[in-house]
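Troubleshooting log. The previous run stalled partway through. Resubmitting the same two chains, unchanged.
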Amino acid sequence: MDRRRKPILVVEDDPADREMIALAFKRAEVASPVVTVEDGQEALDYLQAQGRFWERHPEDLPAVIVLDLDMPRMDGFEFLRLVKPTPDLAAIPVVVLTTSEFDKDLSQSYALGAKSCITKPGDFERLVEVARAVHEHWCEINQVPKGK
Amino acid sequence: MRAPLPFSRLSVHRKVILILAFIVLPVVGMMVLYLNTLRQSLAVQEEVDRLLEIQVQTASILAMVVDVQDGFRGFVLVRNEKFLEPFYTAEGAFDPAISKLKQMVRDDHEQLQRASQIEARVRALLQRKKRLIDAVRLGDLRPALEHIESGEGPNALIAIREDLRNFENIEKQHLSAQRARAERLALVTQYGLVGVVIGILVLWWLASLLLAKTITGPLATLTATAQEFGSGRPGARIPVFSTDELGRLARTMEEMQARISRHISQMEAFHAIGQDISTIGPDGLEGVLKRIAETAGSMLSVDLCLVLLWDETIGCWKVGAASGHWHDLLCRSVLIREETPISFKALTTGRPQVVDDLEARPEEVLQIRDRLGGKSLLAVPLMGPKGAFGVLAFASTNEKRVFTDWDVRLSQQFANQAAIAILNARLYEAAQQRGAGLQNRLEELERYAVNMAHDLKGPARRMAELASLLQVDYKGRFDERSDRYLGWIRETGQQLMARIEEVLRLARLGTVRETIEPVDPAEVVREVIRGCASHIERLGAQVRVVDWFPKLACNRVHLFQVLDNLVRNALKFSVDGRPPDVEIGVVKQTNETVLFVRDNGIGIPSSEQERIFKPFERLGHKDVPGTGIGLAIVKKIIELYQGRVWVESEPEKGTTFFFTLPLYGDLTGVSVRQERAGS
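Second attempt completed without errors. Output:
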């Protein structure tokens, strides 16, 4: 494949989870690179190529954002609220990966523009399956505008 | 109001007399007229009779005169004495006849004169004849013959006849005049009679109109008004304005209606008030007391109404509330017993006390009179279960007022209602204070538990995930024992997660609105069995399902949770060495349809059967995996639908769980919001 593989952006505050998710993508033998950030603010920095991501290639937007909800500084909802009205970023699918099973969290996520909600499984093998499925659906099958 | 007519000022008695007089007077007049006519016709009859008599007399006189003439002629020509017999007979009869005739016309001067003239003529004739007869007897015939030849005799006869005819004619004229008069009178009487009858009819009609207007009309109006009032319509002004007895009756009825209406409206107000004052609003007891004071004050329209509550511990009154502007001034103030003897008497005797004139009691110190300016006072006790606990005091401050029996009764009735309202409000307030604190703490605890469970879930999951990561990712690098421990860590974390999830699900039940839909339990049962398939296979269990279920009206997930929990339980608590035999079915009981899940497991001792539906009760079977919350969820779901769940069990034989859910098509009694799925 000629074209650069778009990365998968994982937004997760818990270091263990962050590492496990990244590892799960790795174990799922996902070809796309995985970028991890600690919270919504960092994710925003990444998307806008600022802060510690100032050197990021401007067209290097993620194929999918895997988003935790409960985070310090800027939580998942706030992040969705900021990203979704931005035309360039709105097309990036957001998959919410959370421990919460509260209906109101799920419906709020969808209302704010999340494309999918997945409960963290509590088993690494299942997590690998989730990672594989996310990659396959959002990075391989799903089509987004090619941009400028 | 219309000015009363002069007639309507009269009393009913006079009106009746007047109306009767109107009818009687013409009747009397007509009778007088008739009698007069009768008298007149009698007079005519008399006159006729007299005339006939006169005619008889004149005829006989004429006959006499003819007899005299004929006798005389015969005697002279034959000279036989025998011919003179009629002559003398006639002469003898003449005197009575002429005197009778004269007697009959004695009132009529002219006729009497004529009669005398006839008499004179007849007597002269007789005299002449007698002289001639005497001459004949003496043999001198010549004068007699001369007399006959001269025709003197017939001439005299003609003259006499003429006189008699005249006489008769005059009498006849009299009679016809009399008769004409009588006829005229009869005619007048005839027309008079017709006139009087018409007049009476007209008068009768007028009298009936007058009666209707002055007596029966007002009576009918009064009756109609009374009936209308009786049938519950409010009495209006009765349209009877006369000043007679009926008018007075109408006014009395109006007063009575007004009084009854006032009483009814008081009773209605009273009823409404009862509900109003019993309603415990956000202002609690204080609001109830205030409403009592206000409504009681306006109900009796007094200037001041006080709700006095007797404080047993300090032995004095506390003003619970006061009507109008007095409230801010008096509320919560204290009145001492010595200054309120009347209210205190009402409290101790439990009977209403009335003082129409407080100033007539100068010897006593009276707060209500001296400080509040009361002129009259009514104090009714507020009765509780242990006697009076307070008093409703009604005071008139502007002027003296006589409290009627009705006032006293009404106020006592009101006080009875008010007392209940006050006691209720007191109880409610006390209970609410206790309950509110408890409720707040419970809600706080629940929120805390839910949040904590939620917060714990993340770490538990992470622990399980990390352990499984190590097991997968570092496979072969741990020895067998480390691998086993890692397995335990993973399982513990997963159990913890499962348990937390159950807790959260239990907490969420009923707080989230669920959709009610028609559900076929057979489908749900199939799903449940599919979910447990591996479990069933491993245990070698047998699951029997009845062929047909009635459709239920509930949330599909709810039914799944119920059946899943019950089936898993049935599989779980089996007797060692005996493969589980589970039966899922339905029974019809008296008036409900009951689903059941039966097993042949270890059973539940009857002493424990109550506990099993409580969260985290596991009856000491620690070796059986589970969260201990499954049956609590079942119970909570069933109760959401106002259904029942119960258990029948025999230790070592088996257990049957029964539950009811609303049948589809028979949604009565479902309190969960009914919403059909949108699509």
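Takeaways: Confidence is low (pLDDT under 50) at residues 667-679 of chain B. The two ends of chain B are 73 Å apart (CA to CA).
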